[in-house]
Amino acid sequence: GESPSFTEDLLTTSSELTRQVQMLPSGTLRAELAFQIFEIGNDIAICGRAKLVGKEDGKMFPSLFSSATVAFLNGANDISRSIAVLVGAGIRDYKKACHMGTIGTMVGSILSLWLANRMIETFTKSWTALPLQTSSLPILGVSFTITLWLIAMTWLGLPVSTTHAIAGAIIGLGLITQGWEQVLWGKVATKIFLPLLFSPFLAFSFSWLLYRTLAYLDKVNPCLCVGEVSPQLDPDAQGEVIALVPKRRMSFVFASAQVCRQFFHHQVGITADHFHLLSAMLIAVSRALNDTPKIVALGLLVQNSISQPFLFAVVTLAMGLGSIVGGWRVTQTLAKRITQLDNRTGLSANLTIVSLVAVCANLGLPVSTTHVTGGAILGVGVAKGSKSVFWDVVRNIALAWLVTLPICANLSAAISFALTRLST
């Protein structure tokens, strides 16, 4: 049970004394006896250090296993948030959208090492009054709980919040190791249940309003263009132009793509498809930026000497692999099984997701990307007409959202209790 510093000091001192004893005149009983004693001490120190290294290696495996497994399943379930609208609106097929979303996910994961590192401490200390310090076996119970839940929900094609699953599993562990009174239920209410009610409603309202606005503007298939104005303008086309700045060599036009081509010799146009792709990439980056530190925190709950950059690298690779391998089922649910998406509804949903996540993050308001995405898609579906919404799928998704935290908390508590009894 030596501490690492004690063992290292013992090893250094023993080596130095052994060197000094070797300098004594040979043949004396004192010199021979001292040499034997310090040789034994040196062996003890070396064995002590090897024992400690072995302990750290034993803790490193569950840390890596927990983080990598949850990161893989997070990628499989959560990549749909960024690409479902692209697939549903027909902007990109699933394969191309998945590749783009995976790139955004890995970029966000890498950036989180520098931009979201403080979230690790915040997330591990947000649910219980005392820091969670426990052995490797209960942490494996937390990881096993999250893994089972994410596998089940991903297989069923239901989008759920990985944050809620991790929080529920950690709360369950806290109930076993610290007791009911040590769980910070106020923070659980403000960070879990409030976003669960707040995020979908806000996203639903905003996407409904945005869809109605775009429906009015979309009559001319708008394109924001900049280019060199043609010397001859088509008078019949001018009636379609919403905004034109004349008498300048370079002009901006907000009109249909066809009108832009009539007005400009050379043009650079920004169409709805460009906004689709940009917003989808931003969602992928921001989602990974938000989720990666939480998954790393799960691995760091085990007290070990593993470096955070290495753990971030493992999570990044696992999350990217999960995005490519397992994202199809949940993407199909969000893309086609809530409501049928087209270019206008898809753009409304994506702009809603990006805007709300960015604004609420800046204001410090707790929102869930999972719930914002579901609420935004539901909002554009209702805006088209309630009959266009598949309400049985919506009911299943809402039920999965509601039960994620309590199921993960109870399952984690049961598994952690069993593993704790086994380890004693």
Outline the fold blueprint.
Elements: H1 4-22, H2 29-78, H3 80-88, H4 94-115, H5 118-124, H6 136-156, H7 162-177, H8 185-217, E1 222-229, E2 243-244, E3 250-256, H9 257-263, E4 264-270, H10 272-300, H11 308-326, H12 328-337, H13 343-363, H14 369-384, H15 391-423
Antiparallel strand pairs: 1-3, 1-4, 2-3
Give an overview of the whole structure.
A 4-stranded antiparallel β-sheet has the order 2-3-1-4. Mean pLDDT is about 75; it is low at about 35-40, about 40-55 and about 230-250. The protein contains 15 helices and 4 strands. A hairpin with a 5-residue loop joins β2 and β3 (about 250-255). It has helices at about 5-20, 30-80, 80-90, 95-115, 120-125, 135-155, 160-175, 185-215, 255-265, 270-300, 310-325, 330-335, 345-365, 370-385, 390-424, and strands at about 220-230, 245, 250-255, 265-270. With about 425 residues, it is mostly helical. Helix content is about 75%, strand content about 5%.
Spatial separation of the terminal alpha carbons: 16 Å
Report the average pLDDT across residues.
76
Write down how many β-strands occur, each being a DSSP E stretch of 2 or more residues. Answer: 4
Strand order of the largest sheet: 2-3-1-4
What is the approximate shape? globular
In a few lines, what is going on in this structure?
The chain is mainly α and 424 residues long. The chain has 15 helices and four strands. The longest helix has 50 residues, at 29-78.
Task: Throw out a few tags for this protein.
mainly alpha; 4 strands; four-stranded antiparallel sheet; 424 residues; single chain; globular
